[in-house]
Amino acid sequence: MKFSALPLFRPPRPSDAVYVELIDALFSLVPPTIIFAICLGAVGLAITARTGDIPVAVLTIIGLLIAGIRVLMARSYRRSTAAAESLSLANARIWERRFSIQAVANGLTVGTLTARCFMLPYPSVHMLVIGLMIAFAAGIVTRVAYRPHLAQLNLLVVSLPPIIACLIHGGHVYLCLAFILTVFLLGAFETVQHLYETVVSQLTLKLRFAGLARLDPLTGLSNRLVLNENLERMLAQAYRNNLGLAVHSLDLNHFKAANDSFGHPVGDLLLREVARRLSQLTRASDLLVRLGGDEFILVQTDVSTREQALALASRILTDVSAPYRIDGHDIILGTSVGIALLPSEQLTPDDLLARADQALYQAKRAGIGFAIYTVAPQLVPAIDIGDAAQRADERKTQGLR
Question: Taking the model in full, what pTM does it have?
């Protein structure tokens, strides 16, 4: 078996979703940046007061300026992501480049400051600055390990200058210190790799379980949790952009009879087929949800006219009412649809869903295909094929074959 150090420099590539989470984590720890800036200022001030060295003072000021820029950048990042509601892959890469520039500049400043202090003939100063450098390197290992290449580069730029300075200084103590720093550097590389793989594994599992928690296990559609999380956002976006929106609430007619006649396995297959047909009617911007049982919600976006919502309801009736061939059985279902259009006044998601449910109740009560909610629910006759399918369904409820 051959040993290679290359894996330390070739971390496994995460998925896009995990990568976005990793970049977001880079900007989540502002307090440590402020704490290190305070420590840097205190150490720089103490060394300048002890030695009167101008380069130390200049490097300390540069380090404080970089820390201030990093804090402002983190605030800008939070405002940007809050406005966009989520971080896209392209923006994540842009923010990573910005963070990397600041991080490398900070590492170079601390490494140069440490090397400069080793050139001064003050052992107490050496002890003080080496403590600062180790604290900075430890922070890199724990906070920047999310991006291992960046962490390893930072460890190099902060460690190599003092190692070289120790070698130039000479003497048993400083040569031993150079050796210890080199061992520390190599060990930190391995630690970064381990932390990165652990974090990626945890985030992958987290996102996987989060995705499963938002899916209906039977049909693969989104579930009520996704509706609760997204409908408010979709409403706000529709109001903000002056776009229409329609909520279609529907359930299946005589599904229980088919489920009782042919058994639950056939009923499950029937629901999957209904979900497939409904999915073919939705666009990428729409939201299709199974609430449970034979109840579904379809949120239709970019609805410019009332007729556009009615046309979708007609297609739902047509497709859902078409015959099914499930496990050797011919089955015909109908459906009822209640439609709630987004009004000019502000409504909550619960209000809009309640209106769609009221329209659905009216459609089922009147025995028609769908109803649209107005000030009072307005009944809209279903298309002919929907009525015919419902009449055929009623005839075959007890005699499905």
Answer: 0.60
